[in-house]
Amino acid sequence: MIRLNHHHIDHVDKITIAATFPYLKVSSRFPTSDLLLNNINLYNQQLQILSRRLGFSFIDFHITPEHLHRDHLNLQHQYNNILDTTIIQYFDVIIAKQVKSPQSQHRSSTAITRRNKGRHEKLKEKQQQNILQGGKGVLR
């Protein structure tokens, strides 16, 4: 679905799914914090399984209920660095993978054709020189 709606995302490794933060704002559907947290944990597990199955990246910020503000929805100010640090580490890992993998830099079909044509011409020249030298100047 993502790739159908966003054609510019042509490689699955460009898609990252983030785990949902816990929140403790209870509702009629989840009347206790425990029920709510269990549901969020199950949801995150399913997101991780789905991302693995589809070849997407998955990032978990490891936010716990202790990191939440009194409103039970937002992070306490002193824990905002968790987000920054996790995102920076995540991109560092992605960059390291790209540097290690030279295959990630694919050449266009035009560039490959041009390279092959040049190689073919050089090979023909060498063959022609070998025929002239080996056959004492007589072309076959």
Describe this entry's structure for a reader.
Residues 100-140 are annotated as: Disordered. Residues 100-113 have a biased composition (Polar residues). The protein is mainly alpha-helical and 140 residues long. The protein folds into 2 domains: 2-106, no CATH class; 108-140. The chain is 52% helix and 4% strand. The protein has helices spanning 2-5, 33-54, 80-100, 109-134; strands at residues 16-18, 57-59. Strands 1-2 form a two-stranded parallel ribbon. Helix 2 (33-54) links the parallel strand 1 and strand 2 (57-59). It is elongated.
**How many structural domains does the protein architecture include?**
2
> What is the N-to-C succession of helices and strands?
HEHEHH
Side-by-side strand order of the widest sheet: 1-2
Helix content: 40-55%
Number of helices: 4
Strand content: under 5%
The SS-based structural class is mainly alpha
The general outline is elongated
Whole-Å distance between the termini? 61 Å
Number of strands: 2
- The residue ranges in which pLDDT falls below 50 over 5 or more consecutive positions are none
| Mean residue pLDDT | 83
User: Tell me about the biggest sheet?
Assistant: 2 strands, parallel
Radius of gyration: 28 Å
What's the gist of this structure?
The protein is mainly alpha-helical. It has helices at residues 2-5, 33-54, 80-100, 109-134; strands spanning 16-18, 57-59. It has two domains: 2-106, no CATH class; 108-140.
